[in-house]
Amino acid sequence: MSKTERFLTADQEKRIVEAIRIAEKTTSGEIRVHLEESTKLDPIERAKEVFHLLKMDLTELHNGVLIYVAIADRNFVIYGDQGINDVVPSDFWEATRDVILLHFKKEDFTQGLIDGILLAGKQLQEHFPWDQNDTNELSNEISIG
Description:
145 residues, alpha/beta, four-stranded mixed sheet
């Protein structure tokens, strides 16, 4: 069993998916979490690549947010599409990163991901509120690479 498969229990994975569902309930934005064991690329470059592979760059309003985690490398990246990057405060991603990092340092990966998802959801809600014509454009499931 790889580190990726041992990173979260089934219950923890359900809690994270539920956080995505809750965060997306009030916004047209899309949030995904991607886990993989390691990357040979710069983590930001790999997050961009995964963002594209998951087709997050094809959302109508370009308002997707990816939380990418390379488990063995002990790295993570929060990557937002251009639509959200254009409207959130300049320190938003750093503040979200700090919230996640606080939990990750205590090896509470589940709560770190949940808090990061909910914080991203609040910003998405402010700038991309949900309306009756919105559809869930992307899966809420955690992707594993």
